[in-house]
Amino acid sequence: MTLVAVAGVAAASDGFAVLLSGDSKVLPVFVGPDQAQSIQMALTGQVFPRPLTHDLFVEVVNEMGGAFDRLLIDDLNEGTYYGKLYVEVYDGENSRETVFDVRPSDGIALISRVGGSIEVDAELLEENGIDEDQLDAFD
After folding, report:
1. Domain region containing 91
2. Which helix (H) or strand (E) holds 35?
3. How many CA atoms does the CB half-sphere of 51 hold within 13 Å?
4. For 2-60, how does the pLDDT look when each residue is reduced to its tens digit (9 = 90+)?
5. Cα separation of 130 and 26, whole Å?
6. How many domains does the chain divide into?
7. Are 72 and 49 in contact (CB under 8 A)?
């Protein structure tokens, strides 16, 4: 697994891409406009007057004794990335880890709000990432 950072949200010829940077490679994850806006707001610290879905979900999980820990993007099938969202659930002094299947776009939006880590399968990043000097395809 390779730890990556969200380098930004960029316009692409066919929509938007979240750029995940790690090991001198950038993995573009294509997302819809709503997810792009939600991720961009989280990255810049913008707060919408009413809670967006991702804000609400973070609040609900926190109120129920959970905390988002990390996102793992570990598979690509027919052009679609797959991810796992790790949530730590606390009960007094005890905790347990719960793993959820997640669309990477939603996982990135959630993790960006709480400061958790994002990891990408190293082979996936190597095979599908682009060199940092080839980013001129994105605005």
Report:
1. 2-137
2. helix 33-44
3. 10
4. 999 999 999 888 889 999 999 889 999 999 999 999 999 999 998 888 888 999 999 99
5. 5
6. 1
7. no
Q: Residue 59: CB partners within 8 Å, gap ≥ 6? A: 51
3-state secondary structure of 124: helix
CATH code for the domain of 125: 3.10.690.10
Q: Kindly report the backbone phi and psi dihedral angles of residue 65, in degrees, each rounded to the nearest multiple of 5, phi listed first.
A: 90, 20
What is the C-alpha separation between 76 and 87, in angstroms, rounded? 22
Read off the pLDDT of residues 45-85 as tens digits, 9 standing for 90 and up. Answer: 988 888 889 999 999 999 999 999 999 999 999 999 999 99
Q: Which residue type, as a one-letter code, is found at position 25?
A: K
